[in-house]
Design a protein that fits this description.
By secondary structure, this protein is an all-alpha fold. The protein contains 14 helices and no strands.
């Protein structure tokens, strides 16, 4: 009840923003049109993608070790995508136009139209997937799982293209970005499974059975492999921050690695997202489920900071900065407003409340 109340209070700020106008309530400007609300949208959308990929290891590819965690993983994929779409809806000043124009005036050459359509269809397929699991229709669930996997992978691989359209920002158009987003999505999916499987057992008072124990430990191994992959991509960012020839937008990389966002980068992206989880896994050899959950929490926190940096830093480099325009600032500025912070908080608490509801559903239908 408390989570729902906090969520309602936070989301009411979004309704207020649509009534009085974003100009009065958001910290965004013409120069920096995307604020913090894009961060939870990207975070939850990528998290849902990762959860779908991991659940597909059991549903689509038939790996038995992942079978026991499929129901919870599918439900988490649904609520994370719903949370992400809710964030982007509240970020828009006239969100009702999206659905109307998507249906009655489609624009196939628009990346945003494709992303809206793809993620909406994906959410529908995942709901049918979960309902099929509830009804014990495994073959039907597998069909929906395949369709959802193909759909969301298409959307994820195109994520950087949507972001790079904003003034053709080079910060988001690095060649490695599609693989980076896919790897990062799968990493967050593993993190969420480790954390919320543990959390689910805590709030229901159940002990981890043998099948779940095996599934979580093999998820922990996949988690470690992905951490090593993300460590490589993080090294590429560091190289770009110190050596301009390794990046398409050296000014943004410098701001991220050595400038005003350096604390976010080194503590959040490097420490919390990668190094701390790696150390925890190596010390315990991935066998302690409590430590696996802690590593998952650390990674999710760091990745949320990563997505905030990814969204904001690229916009702070002025257009045409290379031409030394008179009175053009070195960097644009942005600070999230109270409304943006409260909406983000409300979205996070909405997700937590939905997760607890999902635990009740799993228990009622004996899907664990």
């Amino acid at each position: 009840m408390g989570l729902t109340l906090i969520s309602a209070i936070g989301l009411s700020f979004g309704v207020h923003s649509m009534v009085v106008g974003h100009d009065h309530t958001f910290g965004t400007t013409r120069e920096v049109p995307w604020g913090i609300l894009i961060s939870p949208y990207v975070f939850f959308a990528c998290l849902s993608t990762g959860l779908c990929i991991v659940s597909s290891l059991g549903q689509v590819f038939g790996i038995r070790l992942f079978q026991s965690i499929i129901p919870r993983t599918v439900f988490l994929a649904i609520v994370t995508m719903a949370t992400g779409l809710m964030c982007i809806t509240l970020e828009l000043e006239n969100p009702w136009r999206v659905g109307f124009t998507s249906l009655f005036s489609p624009h196939p050459s628009s990346n945003i139209w494709w992303k809206t359509t793809i993620y909406s269809l994906y959410l529908i397929f995942m709901v049918f997937n979960f309902l099929s699991l509830v009804l014990k229709k495994k073959q039907r669930a597998k069909v929906f799982a395949i369709i959802a996997l193909v759909t969301v992978t298409m959307g994820n691989l195109n994520m950087n293209s949507d972001m790079a359209l904003l003034g053709t920002r080079g910060f988001w158009s690095e060649n490695y970005m599609p693989l980076y987003f896919l790897s990062l999505s799968t990493l967050t999916g593993c993190s969420a499974i480790l954390l919320f499987s543990w959390f689910g057992k805590v709030i229901t008072g159940k002990t981890v059975d043998i099948e779940d124990d095996k599934a979580l430990k093999v998820t922990g191994k996949l988690f470690m492999i992905l951490l090593l992959g993300i460590l490589y991509f993080t090294g590429v960012k560091i190289m770009g921050g110190f050596y301009p020839q390794f990046t398409k937008n050296p000014e943004a990389m410098y701001l991220l690695v050595q400038g005003g966002f350096a604390l976010n980068f080194w503590v959040g992206e490097v420490g919390l997202a990668v190094l701390l989880p790696l150390v925890l896994l190596l010390v315990t050899r991935g066998k302690n489920l409590d430590i696996l959950a802690l590593a998952g929490f650390s990674c999710l926190t760091g990745v949320f900071i990563l997505f905030y940096d990814l969204v904001i830093v690229g916009q702070l480099i002025p257009h045409y900065h290379q031409y030394n325009v008179v009175d053009l600032p070195k960097y644009y500025s942005y600070s999230p407003s109270l409304h943006e912070i409260m909406i983000t908080t409300g979205a996070i608490f909405f997700f937590l409340a939905a997760f607890i509801l999902g635990e009740m559903i799993l228990k009622k239908f004996s899907l664990e």
